[in-house]
Amino acid sequence: MRIVIDMQGAQTVSRFRGIGRYTLNFAKALVRNRGRHEIYLALNGLFTETIEPIRFAFDELLPQENIRVFSASGPVSEINFGNKSHRQVSEFLREAFLESLNPDIIHICSLFEGYLDDAVTSIGLLGMATPVSVTFHDLIPLLNYEHYLEQNKTFLAYYNSKLAFLR
C-alpha cells in the first residue's frame, strides 16, 4: 500500500505547537512501522524554510525521494480575499500533485490550515476515488462558537469551507 501524508501541519505556524509536533511524530511513527508499505511525505513549497528541516528529520528513516514538494501559486492565505483565485488554483494543483504520487490513501495531518498563512488544504475537488483520512484537531471553534466564529465572518466562512470538505 502506498500512503501519502500531507505534512503542512509541520510547516505552518502550527509547527511550533501541538499540531506540528503531532504531525512530525505521527509521520515518524508511521514510517518506522511501515513494514512493506510505501510512505511518501508531501510538503508545500511555499514554506521554503521548513523543507530542509523536515527532510533532515526523516534522513535516517525514509529515502529522500519519498519526500516530495508541491508548488502552489501564492499567496493563498484565506484571511486576504484578494488571494482567492491563487488559493483555488493551488487547491487543484495540490490535489493533482497528490494523485500523481499514485496513493492508495492520503492522510492530511491538519486540514484547518491556511487562514493566516500559505497552507493549501482541500479534499475531493478533482473527484478522484483515492480515500482521504484527516486528523481533526480543531473542534474548539465549534464548541465556542460565540467566541471564535460568530464575530469573525471571514473566519466563519473559512472554517465552514474546511468542514464542508469533511462531509
UniProtKB/TrEMBL annotation:
SUPFAM superfamilies: UDP-Glycosyltransferase/glycogen phosphorylase. This is Glycosyltransferase subfamily 4-like N-terminal domain-containing protein.
